[in-house]
Amino acid sequence: MPGEVLSQNEIDALLSALSTGEMDADQLKKEESEKKVKVYDFKRALRFSKDQIRSLTRIHENFARLLTTYFSAQLRTYVQISVTSTDQIPYEEFIRSIPKMTILNVYEVPPLEGRILMEVNPNIAYAMMDRMMGGRGTSFNKVENLTEIETKIMSNAFEKAFENLKEAWSNVFDIEPVYTDFEVNPQFLQMVSPNETVVVISLSTTIGEASGMINICIPHVVLEPIIPKLSVRYWMQADNKNREPAEIHRITSNIHNAEISVVTELGQSDISVQDFLNLDVGDCIELNKPINQPLVIKIGDIPKFTAQPGKVNKKMAVQIMEIVKGGENENE
């Protein structure tokens, strides 16, 4: 590995310091010979690469957009959800970082093993519930005294909302989210060991005038079987996978059987609104195309051929004369 290149000014300053005694050459040699040690905390093991963290962020940015659309339709009010951070921390640290009493939704994501957690700040949860019950979306916090009806309303809302995770993950892995538990006290929820590494995706959420955070906690053991699929290289290769012959045949057959519109344009004309309103049966409209010029055949809205009019078996027809060259769709 090449050493650092010094500028001439830096070299002059270094020589000056050595000559004046401000720096000791022997001390510099001693420091250089010492091994440089990087501190590593085994309680805070980094088990995901930066590339994999970026992939998880990208997946949940899509999930945040889907949640924004879903809650906007359900609550009929202003909703904005976006990813603010994606971190890997010990599970114990995540539990300490959230409120002592909060809204905890637990999900399974088969075929992956294990459970994932969605923690919703009570301010957000109560604003949602108030809107669903016909209120203005006022936020208040009485999470310790949730009634059975309030618990059912909240759990139903978050159960249906989390179904969007399946679509967000569809480009990487097919999962089937299943809502399994509702809890308000993090101390009663022990999903993995305290030192287990988890990924925490924090979503900044605004619903009406209420704002707060939604945190999605995914243990490493859940993602371990599909970690290779979280790399950018896998995403790029996935787009170039060879299709099965039967699938290619089915797609080709469907394309061949697809119907498209073919229109022969006889000409165009511009008239005033007054003339248009005065049109009557038997009136003639002069077109801008002389009869000795070829007609244009359009496939959809795209000019593809020139043709001349005629008859076939006593029916009006056109005979293709040339293919129209140029244009971005020339080879289609």
UniProtKB/TrEMBL annotation:
CDD domains: FliM
GO cellular component term of the entry, any: plasma membrane
GO molecular function: cytoskeletal motor activity
Entries under SUPFAM superfamilies matching the protein: CheC-like, Surface presentation of antigens (SPOA)
Any single Pfam family the record assigns to this protein: FliMN_C
GO biological process: bacterial-type flagellum-dependent swarming motility; positive chemotaxis
Xref: InterPro entries: CheC-like_sf (IPR028976), Flag_FliM (IPR001689), FliN-like_C (IPR001543), SpoA-like_sf (IPR036429)
The family this protein is said to belong to: Belongs to the FliM family.
UniProt protein name: Flagellar motor switch protein FliM
Organism in which the protein naturally occurs: Cytobacillus horneckiae
